[in-house]
Amino acid sequence: MRNTVLKLTPLSANTGVEIEGVDLAKPLSPEAAREIRDALNTWGAVFFRDQDITPDQQVAFARHFGTVEKRTHPSSMSPVDGTPEVSVIHREPTDGRNTGGFWHTDQCFLPDPPLGSVLYAKSLPTRGGDTMFCHMGAACAELSDGMRAMLRGLKAVHVRLNYHGIGGKPQWGVTPDELEAFTQKYAGQVATHPVIGRHPESGQEILYVNPIYTDRFEGWTRDESQPLIQYLCERATRPENYCRFDWKPGSLAMWDNRAVLHYALDDYAGESRTMHRCVVLGPWLQPAA
Amino acid sequence: MATATLTNTAVKMRPMSANTGMEILDVDLREPLSDAACREIRLALNETGVIFFRNQKIGPEHQLAFARRFGTVQPVEFLETVSGFPEVGIIRKDPDQTRNVGGQWHSDHSFDPVPPLGSVLYAHELPDKGGDTMFANMAAVYDQLSDGLKKTVESLRVVHSKKNAAYSDKRAERQADADLMKRFNELAHREHSHPMVARHPDTGRKVLFINANYTARIDGWSEEESRPLLDYLFRLAYRPENTCRFRWEPGALAMWDNRTANHYALNDYHGHRRLMHRCMVLGSPWK
Questions:
Q1: Which of B143, B145, B152 is the best mutation test for A, with the most CBs of A within 10 A?
Q2: Per the residue annotation, which of A49, A90, A95, A106 is the catalytic one?
């Protein structure tokens, strides 16, 4: 990749690159937009510092990568006034756990998960609250040929309810009553995806599993599947495959939800944090074969 | 289930557990077996993986004659032999030894291209307590897998390695016996890739052909990658529900089908002697 416009600084061997030389409050030149997209395809996540942008400008940036729609916001989020495409992710000092404090991809339990997200930091705790990103293309490439060949033939079932409880047992501090309510609410939110998918832009093979939502291989029982799924996730998320981004006010991250897992660290209890999120829709992973 | 298909007229039998093991009653192995009895015994062996006889008073010649009803007896490796009977090996643990033979789940010589059909083991001297042998029926284990996992394991091969045993967690103990370690090292290169789901040479029945001691990896995968799936399958295979446990007494004889059964010789009788005679029957290639 030859950059003529931007300065790129990788955050780790395989995942994440910081981009300098862009003011996201202004329209992107076609060259800059192309280089950012190339960087996203290579590194899975791109980061910008010291931005001062409005929600509309965040949406304009996101539209370079795919479609942005007005959204139904999850219960933990509310829309930004005047820009319904952008959600506020806010945590109060008195709130319980944060959103996404474990390795996951967004909405893998839907048949067509989003392409990615653009997250912009408005206010941050004095310390903590980093986000980690793990490139599942790199994770896939380091498997043995034999294991990859076997995994190409498998699909995995992703279950939304697993976040709240598994086998009727609540987890993450969910109460049994809450679990019963979630069980009704999320009953149908189950999707099947190939274990190895092909990235629609880079063509790279991606290992598409994560440790909570990925319940089982299609046709296998959960008990049969979990040892291998957990092994794949643990191996994939070794430190060599991920980067860790320390947010500052004005930092912006965009990640490719097809290529990376992410993990929002839950280590700032007693403080508040406010982020603006914009979800980008686009082509999903294709079958590997 | 194990006995439902057997209609015995020549011998009486008693199942040892739900899937594994059949005790053959009222047979004196000093006498020649009738063809009908032999056929029924062989059916029981195929179905349950291991057969047992009690209260025998036999010599090496009778043990060999019995073994030859199942095939050709193969030369002894790794063991001393009974004087005058080079095909009968001695499995012996003395009061001052801490290591035994076969004290992990395994099938005999699974690292050979054609693993033995089976082994015939006869008890001479036993400790007052302990020294049992457990068996697991790996055809029954295959039947318990989901359709999806069956399909996957049928597409895989597994590498069985002699080295795997020599370098297992028993290594420290084995090293105490320098001579044995030397022989292990000489043979450490011996390994073979088998189908993970093999078809039994005689019956065509599908068997999950893996064992905890010798199965080093899934062919084409690293050893580390292979562990989660293999370890899951071992946990499933060696659940008490899939096994039987045989309490030896002098004069007891066991014969196992080495393709169908895994076995485990408990090492829980330090300070006592245990002396057994073993002969092995040559196998044939997978179907």
A1: B152
A2: A106
Closest-approach residue (CA) in chain B for A144: B221
Give pLDDT tens digits for B144-173.
Answer: 999 999 999 999 999 999 875 544 444 445
* Closest C-alpha to B246, from B28, B76, B14, B62: B14
* Joined tokens for residue B217: 């990896």
Start-to-end Cα distance in chain A: 27
Contact B267/B91 with Cβ under 8 angstroms?
Answer: no
Report the percentage of chain B scoring pLDDT > 90. Answer: 77
Which positions in chain A touch B155 (Cβ < 8 Å)?
150, 153
Note the pLDDT tens digit of each residue in B15-71: 999 999 999 999 999 999 999 999 999 999 999 999 999 999 999 999 999 999 999
Task: Count the alpha carbons within 13 Å of B197 in the hemisphere toward its beta carbon.
Answer: 18
Are B221 and A147 a contacting pair at CB < 8 A? yes
Min Cα separation B230/chain A (Å): 10
Complex ipTM value? 0.82
Q: Strand pairing of A17-20 and A45-48?
A: parallel
Residues of B in contact with A146 (CB under 8 A): 218-221
% of chain A exceeding 70 in pLDDT: 95
Across the A/B interface, how many CB contacts are shorter than 8 Å? 55
Partner A contacted by B114 (CB < 8 A): no
- CB of A214 closer than 8 Å to CB of A156: yes
User: A231 and B227: CB-CB below 8 Å?
Assistant: yes
Q: Residue A26's CB: how many other CB atoms inside 10 A? A: 11
Active site residue A262: yes
Whole-angstrom distance, CA of residue B144 vs CA of residue B206:
12
Q: Six-digit token pair at B166? A: 């020599």
In this structure, are residues B18 and B241 in contact, taking their beta carbons and an 8 Å threshold? yes
* Contact yes or no for B106/B264 (Cβ under 8 A): yes
**Annotated catalytic residue A106:** yes
> Which helix or strand (DSSP H or E) is residue B86 part of?
strand B85-93
